[in-house]
Specification:
2 domains, cyclic-di-GMP binding, elongated, Transcription Regulator spoIIAA, alpha+beta, STAS_dom, single chain, 11 strands, Thrombin, subunit H, 240 residues, 5-stranded mixed beta sheet, anti-sigma factor antagonist activity
Amino acid sequence: MNIVPRQNGDIVILYLKGDIDINSSIFIETVGYHLENGIVDILCDFAEVDLVDYTGLSVLAIAYKNVLNHHGRMKFINVPIHIKNIFSMVCLDTVFEIYDDEAVALGSFKEDRVIAEIKKKQLRRRFKRLPLSIPVKFKLKHVKEAKLQKGKAFNLSAIGAYILCDKAHALGDILALQMSLMPKPGLMELDAKVVWVAKRELMPQLYPGMGVEFYNINSMVQSTLIQYVERNLSSQEAKE
């Protein structure tokens, strides 16, 4: 198969041609390349796809799952009817978002972002934020030779933290984060995504620093964070 990518803002459109089968690992590699470079919204154009066999379905599923793991979206346009029927046979038509028009599909990504932002704001209101100053260590998660950096968590909630550090990472970077929540023994290890970076002219007292959102956090770890935040907030309020 052949793939021709075209970027539209922060969305990449992949124009696919040929068969999607056992020889289509290039599709997984192409999707992975864009994800690693911060493009997590992907639109696949099937107008010139002739065939998707059983192995090809696995290729699509692997790439699709990789996009979800990066908190992105993969959608499809111009899917021929015989391929739609194959998707239907294995229930992928209930998983994949399929559109007939490129402009409508591109617009749906923007709508998704608006909805996600609303949900994120609602989520933030559910969790209290604790002002504090505790040491943290972090490094880029997917870089083998990444050096461990030191910083301080300026505040903490069950979904994220603000970290003061010598040098902030770029938006979208995934970090491996370590911190100790005393008196609980040991280190808590979390994956975190950089979602905003302080600007000196706007927040000189918090510069350099970055806001991170905990990434793929499990319920047990989140429960530990909630208990820590609530316990320390209660202690601070009692002192006041």
